[in-house]
Amino acid sequence: MSRVRLRGIYTTALTERLREQFDVVQASPPIRRRFDADFDHAEYDATVETTDDRQGVGVVGDDATVEQIADALAATGIDTFCWTDSAPRGAIFDGLVTETLGGGAVVDLGDREGYLPFGEIDRRIDVDDRVRVQVHDPAAPWVNQRPGLGTEIQTQGGVASLSKGIDRIVAKGDDATQTELARTTEMLPTDVPDDWGVRWEYAAEEAGLDAMDGALSQAIEEAEAIDGALADTPDLAERDGVPHQIVAPEATTWLWFGRESRFGLDDLRREVTTTMPGHHRVKAAHRSASTAVDFVEDLCKMSGEFRTGAVLRQFGPRDGGKTKIVHGKPDGRCFPLGRGEVTSFDPDEGKLTVQREMSGRGTYDALEVPRESGDVATTKFREGRWWYPTVYRSEDGETKGTYVNICTPVELFPDEARYVDLHVDVVKFPDGTVERVDDDELDAAVAVGNISEALGDKARSVASSVENALR
Questions:
Q1: Residue 394, number of CB atoms within 10 A of its CB
Q2: Residue 243, preceding peptide bond in cis (omega within 30° of 0)
Q3: CATH code of the region 322-470
Q4: N or C terminus: which one in the chain shows less Cβ crowding within 10 Å?
Q5: Per-residue three-class SS string for 13-62
Q6: Residues whose CB is less than 8 angstroms from the CB of residue 407 and which lie 6 or more positions away in sequence, other chains included
Q7: DSSP string, 348-412
Q8: Are the CB atoms for 87 and 114 separated by under 8 Å?
Q9: Which residues lie closer than 8 Å to 213 by C-beta, 6 or more apart?
Q10: Which residues, at least 6 apart from 463, have a Cβ–Cβ distance to it below 8 Å?
Q11: Is 345:352 a contact under the CB 8 Å cutoff?
């Protein structure tokens, strides 16, 4: 079986989900304790790590294993979304500088842009310069961040990594650990290729000689694939057709978990250990929530329904404060619709009202009425609901129409309301006419696989209910 390493707030649930199909390796002490099992310290074929914003996971590793894991996790819940990254970790590109910022350059990679800090390149670069770069830190499509690039060519592993052009052995840990690992390297039967240096990761300290040698061999296979691709590639200055991907030794896939999916993960975790209702929903709200959840679960066993009010009182918006509407799209993009004032918030009911003052440009989608300075948009959210309405009014209070967005179940976090838009919407015009719009966009998203058949059916059902209620 392929080997997988898991890290982050979803680790227990995903270990339970994947352990029959994959060998889980490099498990943390809590995971070893919860499963009462010994896990190997071998190198992984793929790693699954929670994203920095805690909204999902990134899966990185060899193509076949990443695809298998993504397929296994895509069924977590009806509002789980999955996207393959066109700029995966480890991919090498001949890119084109399109913009320079204060600390680095924006590089066109083809389907995506990356960010190259000036400290990662040993020469001055400017707009229209060509650069050969590698993706060191991939970025989820829903975050406002470009993948992090570097010019040092490397492989990245959980036990052993390699860096091209560096003739030395580097190890993480204290001085004694570094010295021991450097000496151990000389004892291994596998020889490091010329022009590559070894970097032992923290997991190497727990790995035996066979595991270390296996990890080194795995890293060398990737390094040799990179060397072969670079040998067949023209010099940067001579290449036609920049940007161009030279090689992608690893794949990267992103999975976004919606509210329903988080409750599904709770059920998986509950099979292993005490899990409070809404465990993952709470932890997704704020970093500080993890400690509070762990403390509660260590004290007592809990059962019953997710306590929305208790969670929102601690980790929800604040009446009179500001909140952002974060609008996800089924193709992986995510962008804010704006920040507004919280005019009403009832944590026990999970209800939030946000008002935004609109600019005077363009028209309102589907309503076909002009946006004018002084217009006010009043949006009402309810945690867990598959839709939310926005009423647009002029400066003097005249109604310009209502737009009801059909989406995955809304989640209310301290500074934002989050969901993924499901394309189909319902509008109500000032004269009372009700119209359902954008069914064709929903159909197209289902056809290309960005929205599952089940989720598409759910969106249509919700839209029909809203349409009937507004008539």
A1: 15
A2: yes
A3: 2.40.380.10
A4: C
A5: HHHHHHCCCCEEECCCHHHHHHHCCCCECCCCCEEEEECCCCCEEEEEEC
A6: 386, 387, 388, 419, 420, 421, 422
A7: TTTEEEEEEEPPSSSB-TTT--B--TT-EEEEEEETT-SEEEEEEE-TTS-EEEEEEEEESPPEE
A8: yes
A9: 188, 189, 190
A10: 387, 406, 424, 425, 426, 436, 439
A11: yes
Q: Please, what sign has the CA dihedral across residues 218, 223, 151, 120? A: positive
Nearest Cα to 250, choosing from 92, 47, 84, 91? 91
Of 345, 421, 355, 356, the C-alpha closest to 383 is: 345
The pTM (predicted TM-score) of the whole model is 0.89
List, in sequence order, every beta strand (DSSP E) within 42-118. Answer: 46-50, 56-61, 80-84, 92-100, 104-108, 113-117
Q: For residue 318, what are the contacts with CB-CB under 8 A and spacing of at least 6?
A: 342, 345, 414
Query: Beta strand 104-108 with 196-200: parallel, antiparallel or unpaired?
Result: unpaired
> 254 forms bridges with which residues in the sheet?
58, 83
Could you tell me which residues come within 8 angstroms of residue 94 by beta carbon, excluding any fewer than 6 positions away? Answer: 130, 131, 132, 233, 236, 239, 242, 243, 244, 246
How much is the mean pLDDT over the chain? Answer: 92
Residue with tokens 């598409």: 456
Report which listed range, 113-117, 281-285, 430-434, is most confident: 113-117
The whole-angstrom separation of Cα 211 and Cα 205 is 11
Residue 212 exposed, middle or buried by CB count within 10 Å (0-12, 13-18, 19+): buried
| Contact between 393 and 357 (Cβ < 8 Å) | no
Q: Which two tokens stand for residue 431?
A: 């004269």
Q: Where are the domains of the chain?
A: 3-86+253-270, 155-229, 322-470
Q: Give me 132's structure tokens.
A: 């050969």
**The pairing of beta strand 154-155 with beta strand 130-137:** unpaired
Print burial letters for 227-250: b (CB count within 10 Å at least 16), e (below 16).
beeeeebeeeeeeeeebbbbbbbb
The Cα–Cα gap between 4 and 70 comes to 12
Structure-token pair, residue 207: 């790995």
**Rounded Cα–Cα distance for residues 350 and 444 (Å):** 33
Backbone angles phi, psi at 227, to 5 degrees: -60, -40
What size, in residues, is the chain?
A: 471
Rg (CA), the chain: 25
pLDDT tier for residue 304 given thresholds of 50, 70 and 90: low
Q: Which of 336, 327, 408, 415 is nearest to 76 (CA)?
A: 408
Can you read off the two tokens belonging to residue 77? 């819940």
The average pLDDT across 35-63 equals 95
Listed residue (388, 326, 408) closest to 81, CA to CA:
408
